[in-house]
Amino acid sequence: MFAGVPAAPISDTEISEAYIYLLGRLMVTRQQQLDFQEGFQWNKVVHRKPGEVDWPNPNLDVAYSEAWVAVDESSCTIVSVPQVKNRYYTVQFLSGWGETLANINERVFPRRPYGDFAVCLKGANVRLPAGVIRIDLPVKYSRMLSRVALGDDQAAAVALQHRFTLSATGSPKLPEIPKTPIFELEKLPGVEAFDAASAALDSEPDRNPGLEPMQELTRRVAEAAKEPAQRERIDRVVRTQAFLKFAKAGAIIGHGVAQDGWARPGAVGEYGIDYLTRTLVNYRGIWANLKQEVFYYRGALDSNGAELSGDHAYTLTFPKEALPSRFASYFWSVIAVDGARFRVLPNSQQKYLLNEQSGLTHSPDGSLTLYFAAEKPANAPAGNWLPTPRGVKYRLTFRYYGPLDGVVNGTYFPPALVKVK
Length: 421
Description:
There is one protein chain. The chain is α+β, with helices and mostly antiparallel strands. Among the domains are: about 45-170, Immunoglobulin-like (Sandwich); about 290-420, Sandwich (Jelly Rolls), CATH 2.60.120. Helix content is about 25%, strand content about 25%. The chain has 8 helices and 19 strands. The longest helix is centred in the N-terminal third of the chain and has 27 residues, at about 10-40. The N and C termini lie far apart (about 65 Å).
């Protein structure tokens, strides 16, 4: 820009785009602050009890262990992974933007998927013990999430979970946790989001090529927000336009596709320049993994296009030739979450998902019908029923771990939900 030439005015559309872009990072810094307030320490694993995690769309099929990992030019972090047989597991590392950087499992390391792995900063000159497999990351600070499938032996899964450990080889320099708004998911920040733009962007540069203009635009909006008149306008645009655009984009998860009431994202775990989808995924299902590990479908509408409600009963029928297990190498499951905070729905049965350990009953023709209702329908086998409390609009999240066939290539969608009452 030439000296003396005023900057071009920022349009409403640019404000909305900058807000949605920044929100993706703020979702991660929000969770990071909550974690450290809870007592997290760098390079220390927190082993969660099954079902204990409190973030949007949790997976209740697995035992989670979590950590924030710090490495630098002089220190790596050793990840010790036990030998796991006949059970799904993975150790996932994510950037401060919610992008998956690496996984440790038998799919990525088929020759030796267990033992000691050294997570290092790319280019770091660190002497490692013999036999350790080195994994280079492009960032100094990352989020680790390990998953061990509970399967039909939860005690064995938990025992394995506690054998995943971390240890730093040195004393890495630890960052200050960015101070950004800690907000409720149903009450997103307005213009105050831009007050934290520098802290959010400076603490974790966005590595995705092509998003440099979005970083620059976000900083421009943040600077404009310091002027009272502009601040009022920016807040108004965020609340009347950015919120609306974000909500509408959620219907197909950004640039995804919807069919028969189910939406599938176009990207998950790694996003390129698709910051809209990245922000939506961080908002509704933070810490999503790569699509070759797991794929998610979100069900929000029934076969008539109406929103799902606990005031009605629905069936979901899979024909014999297209049972959910056909499309998952490891396991599948479905949960119901509320439409505001995306947490599982409380119910008197304390039953929060359906999967192959639910005691499912197949029909005589080999098909499988799942039921979603406040009370168990008279004709529903108990194992096939997921309670959905009255007075609540909700969403279903259907997961396929180790996705196969049409789930991978985008040609498959679950059947439509049919309202029966």
